[in-house]
Specification:
This protein is 27% helix and 33% strand. By secondary structure, it is α+β, with helices and mostly antiparallel strands. The protein has one domain: Electron Transport, Fmn-binding Protein, Chain A (Pnp Oxidase, Chain A), CATH 2.30.110. Strands 1, 2, 3, 4, 5, 6, 7, 8 and 9 form a 9-stranded antiparallel beta sheet that branches.
């Protein structure tokens, strides 16, 4: 059955947006064919222009949503200058999406170390070899840098680069969206004034 035909008031049940997100993510992991943990991350550059890209969500709990990147990349430098971000999870097969906005903080070194150690060796090497977001003269140069890093750490696991870390988006707002017929979509928002404040829940017009 077309998801837009299904009327399920229980879909938005509960006053905890993290619990609701967890249920939706679990359903996406069961039904979304590609990267159910894929999320668009939006930041603002030094000129006030918005910037957005896809990353993979690597952890989440009641503190927020975690992704990892090179801190010297565009998004890393933008978050250093203005520690706020917006996220968008879009699960096309379920015809649902979740928007999140909030402040951003680096995760602890211990968290970054633990996740980096769990990565495949090729990804570990790549983190050292890539000057992410900066001009690359040729693909051959990147491949040569990969080979050099791989040789430098032959027989051992590369340590985490000091410029590679995780970021946690700490939500101040959520919006859960579900597709419905005639563009009369369901939208449920959760908002709070600060990280210690209680959530306010409200429905929104489509």
């Amino acid at each position: 059955m077309d998801p837009a035909e299904v009327v399920d008031e229980g879909l938005f049940e509960g006053d905890d947006p993290f619990g609701l997100f967890g249920r939706w993510l679990k359903e996406a992991e069961a039904g979304e064919p590609n990267d159910p943990n894929g999320v668009a991350v939006a930041t603002v550059d030094a000129d006030g222009m918005p910037d957005v890209r896809m990353v993979l969500l690597k952890d989440w709990d009641a503190r927020g949503f975690v992704f990892y990147t090179n801190a010297q990349s565009d998004k890393g430098r933008q978050l250093e200058a203005d520690a706020k971000a917006a996220l968008l999870f879009h699960w096309k097969s379920l015809r649902r999406q979740v928007r999140v906005r909030g402040s951003v903080e680096p995760v602890t070194d211990a968290e970054s170390d633990a996740y980096y150690a769990s990565r495949a060796r090729g990804s570990q090497v790549g983190a050292w070899a890539s000057d992410q977001s900066r001009p690359l003269p040729s693909r051959a140069e990147l491949e040569a840098r990969v080979q050099a890093v791989d040789a430098r750490y032959a027989g051992e696991a590369p340590p985490r680069p000091p410029f590679w870390r995780g970021y946690r988006v700490q939500p101040l707002s959520f919006e859960f969206w579900r597709d419905r017929r005639s563009r009369l979509h369901d939208r449920m928002a959760f908002r709070r004034d600060d990280l210690q404040a209680p959530w306010t829940t409200l429905r929104l017009y489509p």
